[in-house]
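Tokens for chain A. Residues wanted.
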């Protein structure tokens, strides 16, 4: 009888421990998700989107895909993807070279016109800068 109680107690303790571990792991994964969310909100741009004269390279696309500026404006591209991209003029007027994750590239557009560009690594990624 004494032994049986001991086994029961041990089983109960084990079950409690399992529940405790489960709750611990669950809360851990939740807090790491929150931290990832905080990381995204940690950008200097609080809105989460590209600012004025800024283009995000995000989700294998340029955002915005068409940006309109006045002559003399400098545009900055920021790579928000975990992979390297380029900002390369279709007519060879500018080329960023490799933009690694979180890196930026800036170019000043001094002459009015329509400038289409693409990513040399993912050539389906295309976008346009319109300079007035
Ligand atoms: Cu790319």
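Reply:
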């Amino acid at each position: 009888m004494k032994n049986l109680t001991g086994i029961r107690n041990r089983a109960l303790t084990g079950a409690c421990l399992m529940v405790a571990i489960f709750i611990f792991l669950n809360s851990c994964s939740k807090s790491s998700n929150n931290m990832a969310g905080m990381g995204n909100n940690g950008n200097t741009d609080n809105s989460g989107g590209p600012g004025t004269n800024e283009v995000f390279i995000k989700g294998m696309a340029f955002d915005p895909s068409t940006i309109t500026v006045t002559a003399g404006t400098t545009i900055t591209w920021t790579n928000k993807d975990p992979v390297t991209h380029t900002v390369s003029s279709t007519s060879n007027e500018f080329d960023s070279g490799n933009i690694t994750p979180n890196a930026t590239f800036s170019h000043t557009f001094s002459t009015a016109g329509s400038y289409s560009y693409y990513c040399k690594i993912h050539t389906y990624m295309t976008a346009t800068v319109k300079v007035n």
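Residues 54-131 form a domain with the Immunoglobulin-like fold (CATH 2.60.40.420). The chain has two domains: 1-42, 54-131.
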